[in-house]
Amino acid sequence: MTGRVFALMCLVVAGSVAPALAQTAAAPAPRSRIGFRAFGHFEWQNMAAKDSFEAVTGKTRLQGPGGGVEMQRIWRGVFARVSFTRMVETGERVFVFDNEAISLGIPLEITMTPVDLAVGWRLGPKTSRGIVPYAGAGMVLLSYKETSDADVSGEAVNESYKGIVIFGGLEVPVWRFVSVGGEVGWRQVNVPDPGGALEAFNEKDLGGVTMRVMLSIRK
Predict the structure, then answer these.
(1) Which of 5, 24, 89, 126 is deepest in the core (most CB within 10 A)?
(2) Residue 148 to residue 153: CA distance in whole angstroms
């Protein structure tokens, strides 16, 4: 009889311990799913080579539309980005003498297309509205063109340069998967042999401080 009671007690204890162990060994937290963000933006770039651009275009700032895509939650807050901007401005060819620009009366169009390849870190929402701050850095590939209807052979410029980019911004949800945001950045794109107004003013950087307003769709 005693043996039967002992066996029954063992079965009861085993049955109660097994569920307890199952409850104690918590299931591993599910991994965050990789997400994507596609965005369009309008960008302003305050040119580092301000004297050269003011002489040729009468402005020190270029602007234009662009867009890009991000892969988010690669690991925690890590994201990777590809984006581009197309900035076009018109002006005139100049001859620089003693730091004074003399217009040659030849119409000129400048097209700059920076492509940013970057990685960064997104923080969690910081307010009840779900505002998300982020920052990143990477490489910029810049296409730079100067064209004119009056160009003769060899006068047009079509070059590509490499540089660095850093940026930071805020993303604000507005409706379901749609958000708006703002971003401030900085590019440095050194030109090894600039020529023209850039050389005359001793300016070799086609980068500068950038500002963006953005409209995004998240998934």
Answers:
(1) 89
(2) 11
Looking at residue 162, its pLDDT comes to 97
201 Ramachandran zone, left/alpha/beta (phi>0; psi -120 to 50): alpha
Q: How many CB atoms lie within 10 A of CB 166?
A: 16
How many helices (DSSP H) and strands (DSSP E) are in the chain? Answer: 3, 9
User: CA of 138: how far to CAs of 83, 151, 162, 184, in Å?
Assistant: 11, 35, 11, 14
**Close Cβ partners of 159 (under 8 Å, ≥ 6 residues apart):** 143, 144, 145, 191
The residue type found at 44 is W
Joined together, the tokens standing for residue 139 give 């490489």
CATH top-level class of 33-218: mainly beta
pLDDT for residue 28: 52
Domain boundaries, the chain: 33-218
Q: What is the pLDDT of residues 85-132, one digit of tens each?
A: 999 999 998 988 888 888 888 899 999 999 999 999 999 887 777 899
Distance CA 91, CA 152 (A): 17
Tokens representing 15 are 């049955």
In degrees and rounded to multiples of 5, residue 13 shows phi and psi of -65, -45
Residue 182 in tokens? 């703002």
Which residue in 93, 108, 188 sits closest to 140, CA to CA? Answer: 188
Place of tokens 């779900």: 130
E-only strand ranges, 73-154: 78-85, 87-97, 100-122, 132-147
